[in-house]
Amino acid sequence: MKVTVPQSRVHGDAHAPPSKSYTHRAILAAGYSDGALVHHYLGSADTRETMGAVEAFGGDVADVQDVLEVDGFGGRPEVPPDVVDCGNSGTTMRLTTVAAALADGITVLTGDASLRSRPQGPLLDAVDQLGGSARSTRANGQAPLVVEGPIEGGTVTIPGDVSSQFVSALLMAGAVTDDGVDVELSTELKSAPYVDITLEVLDDFGVEATRTESGYRVPGGQSYEPRDGEYTVPGDFSSASYLLAAGALAGDPEVEVHEVYPSAQGDSAIIDILTEMGADLEWDRENGRAVVRRSELSGTTVDVGDTPDLLPTIATLGAAADGTTEIVNAEHVRFKETDRVSAMAEQLSKMGAEVEEERDALLVHGGESDLVGADVEGLGDHRIVMALAVAGLVADGETTITGAEDVDVSFPGFFDVLYELGVDVSRE
Ligand SMILES: O=C(O)C1=C[C@@H](OP(=O)(O)O)[C@@H](O)[C@H](O)C1
Ligand SMILES: C=C(OP(=O)(O)O)C(=O)O
Predict the structure, then answer these.
(1) Centre of ligand 1 from the C-alpha of residue 194, in Å
(2) Averaged pLDDT of the chain
(3) How many CA atoms within 13 Å lie on the side-chain side of 276?
(4) Which atom of ligand 2 is nearest to the CA of 115?
(5) Does residue 94 have a known ligand-binding role?
(6) Is there an atom of ligand 1 within 6 Å of 198 CB?
(7) Whole-angstrom distance, CA of residue 232 vs CA of residue 204
(8) Can you tell me which residues form the catalytic site (predicted)?
(9) Is 336 annotated as a binding residue?
(10) Contact between 286 and 311 (Cβ < 8 Å)
(11) What is the pLDDT of residues 322-353, one digit of tens each?
């Protein structure tokens, strides 16, 4: 699907969708338990992959009047009856790889072309260190993967600068091993707040896990028991970032974004980044609302070590801001659905922005008046599509984005929300 976004002003109320990261974890944690109700869950392409994995392990997942009823597999997963297809979802593949290593048998995992090009090697090595066996069929550290269990637990040494999802996966599965898992990080951890989200969800399911001097530790022999059998997912700050950015670039008189409560989500940093760039923004933390108005933005420097998913949003903001925006510590952002550093450089250049790409950084020399509508490509990546749509709001003329259906991965109603904010979105 192609979507065309004309230069527009936006106004009104918008709700951030439920968090993708929390939803994945809540579904899998409920799967490890005897069962749970998950309220305010995100129903999207990626979270449906995790639902499918829980069912493949012997659980059952059903939507009953907008509440997800998960019947758990109760501790150790069963050997799946078929290949587990994780689609486009890195989180599903990483969390499921170690869950599969708990089962007494062989599991095969695959995904779409994007997911089959993303790095899994350190996680395969970690499963081997825990006494299981995990292989890439092509021996290149990428899916398809063949995982054999059961693992009993132990100590693993793993790099922290490829994906924090490896650590999250080891902690979630480690809790139900006999011996527990000690994760020793051999390099600095990137995307660390996502591990904090994992620790928070584990705690909410009665599972103990802690940070250690050199990494993380989860004792074994634990069981997942959700408080009162229920879990409620908070709003998603990565998704909110597009709405907040739209308000800062084109809010006239203002955009009010709901479901933005303080959270372990690193991407709540978007509030500080926008403020630092000069956005007229007020955040009512208690009521989870942020009001933002069209503002003159100026360039800044942002370290995305903790917040990789904000890179596309910040690149768009930088393209419209005066001066240079430097996005640094960004190498791990190349390992996503697409290489987002080069994707944003390429696509924003088509819209007239001056962008310089370095291995670990993106430099955007901005100026709203310089942006022009263009035909741009979503490159199979939901976040690139949404960030380019926001850039389209301030580009002269019309911006047409290919592959716009990919927003279904994390924010299925994104273009409906833009329409409700007053953008004359057309789809073909
Ligand atoms: O654990 C998670 O929910 C996620 C972790 C991050 O990935 P990395 O840890 O691979 O950087 C992030 O980019 C992804 O969108 C979601
Ligand atoms: C990278 C992302 O997700 P995942 O790793 O689950 O594919 C994302 O949502 O931006």
Answers:
(1) 6
(2) 98
(3) 13
(4) 7
(5) no
(6) no
(7) 10
(8) 309
(9) yes
(10) no
(11) 999 999 999 999 999 999 999 999 999 999 99
Is 163 annotated to bind a ligand? Reply is: yes
The predicted pLDDT at position 259 comes to: 98
pLDDT tens for 254-278 read: 999 999 999 999 999 999 999 999 9
Is any ligand 1 atom within 6 A of the Cβ of residue 237?
no
Distance in angstroms (rounded) separating the CA atoms of residues 405 and 385: 9
pLDDT of the residue at 368: 65
- Residue 148 in contact with ligand 2 by CB distance below 6 A: no
Q: Are 36 and 70 in contact (CB under 8 A)?
A: yes
User: Which domains are seen in the chain, by residue range?
Assistant: 3-17+235-427 (3.65.10.10), 20-219 (3.65.10.10)
Does the beta carbon of 90 lie inside 6 Å of ligand 2? Answer: yes
Whether pLDDT at 354 is above 80 = yes
Residue 248: name the closest of 280, 283, 276 by CA. Answer: 280
263 is in an annotated binding site: no
Instruction: Return the DSSP state at 207.
Output: -
92 CA closest ligand 2 atom index: 6
CB 3 within 8 A of CB 415: yes
Alpha-carbon span 189 to 82, nearest angstrom: 34
49 Cα to the center of ligand 1, angstroms: 15
Sign of CA dihedral 193, 270, 16, 342: negative
Residue range 171-186: mean pLDDT, rounded: 98
Just list the catalytic residues. Answer: 309
Ligand 1 neighbourhood includes 161 CB (under 6 angstroms) = no
Q: DSSP letter string over 76-105?
A: SPPPPSS-EE-TT-HHHHHHHHHHHTTSSS
pLDDT of residue 288: 98
